Amino acid sequence: MRRAVLFDMDGVISDTERFYIDGMVEKLKEEGVVITPWDLKDLFGSTQVYIWNQLIERYHLEGTVEEYVDAVHEIRDRLIQREGLHPMPGVLELIRELHEAGVLLAVASSSPRETIERNMKMFDVLDCFDTIVSGLECRQGKPAPEIYLKAAENLGVMPKECVVIEDSVNGVKAGKAAGMYCHAYVPPQAYSQDVSVADDVITSFAGLPIDDILRNNK
Asked: What is the DSSP code (8-state) at residue 189?
């Protein structure tokens, strides 16, 4: 019996994944590295610290990880201020319905805890979640399973009792490595990624029955 649903945040709850990606592309351009978002797809879903460690080595950059992470956060905040912070369509209704049904809920995101809590408070769903785990609180980020195993431990449930909802290839790998049922959330506007390791694919949260999320018949 599946008792808990573990949500990624950026690109699943909040429409913010693209801000991080655009921020990385913009900062790399300032460093003389011209790429497209598709060139970063193998890094989607990981923490900014991990990503910039990889990018510094990949493109022989001279700045520090901290400098690049701070720069991306500044770009992200500028984009959010200009365009607004928006939830993915239908996700807040789904979160509230799961909470009202007594399903245990967690956010397990590579973003900093303060960002997660701020966004969930802005969406008025912070109280729906029983635990929050940031990737910065883990020794290994996604695709390692640590963040999801820690969320399950905090909820007091076994991994097999958990469902993960992820939008990135590294997030899906993390959920599966944790031994959990994993939905890949792939809305029409998402960057194309290979999420074939997921158990199934969700293209929209709107009107989605919670039984389809829990998949207790499978």
From this structure: T
